[in-house]
Amino acid sequence: MAVQPAAEPHPDMARVKGGADALDRLEARLGLTFADRARLQRALTHSSLKRSPTDASYERLEFLGDRVLGLVIAQKLFETHPKSDEGDLSLRLNTLVSAQTCAAIADEIGLAEFIRHGSDLKRAAAGKNRSIRADVVESLIATIYLEHGLETARAFVLKRWAPHLEGPQVARRDPKTELQEWAHKRAGAPPVYELLDRSGPDHEPVFTVRASVEGVEPTEGKGASKRVAEQRAAEAILLREGVWTAETA
Question: What residues make up the catalytic site (predicted)?
Fold first, then answer.
């Protein structure tokens, strides 16, 4: 029988960080072990690494982890804020499950070094992209839930989120929503957003938006999407006009 030559390593494998040694280190960092190593590896895999239709990324796990995280945090807020109404609880929940908070948890764990991604992402992109880091935290929560059950997943979330739960809560509305209400009270009309510029390459665009409220000097905001730029422009007005303070923005 002819011996088949060894397959050449796929060029993306130089960027794969989810080998057995890496998974061992992640388990040690989490204080948990996983019998289903393939699922744990999938939880760390960005869709850019897919080399065939059968390859899987963390996206399905992220979907489940988002719901588990929301349930755990919602119950915790329900128990610890008995006098808060539904609106206040929702604001607190939105802050605690936001991409910003999830990415901060990822950074505290050091997850960036374990994220697996393909050649169409820059080498450092996965570690720097807040959305990817947040997604991996949620997919990891789903992996813990599926392997160890809800109580272990709950313990993981409450431990990692404890400083955010116990620290000062930045429970505030979306800046566009806040500005719209303020503008109606002040001017009787909603704010107007104008796209001023779109620059940068397609994979890293920068949008510049102007927010205007009648009788108030306009402000500008920049962001990787038009929505983010609008939010930052709205936030700039809220800060300048004293509706928000730097501590709550």
Answer: 66, 138
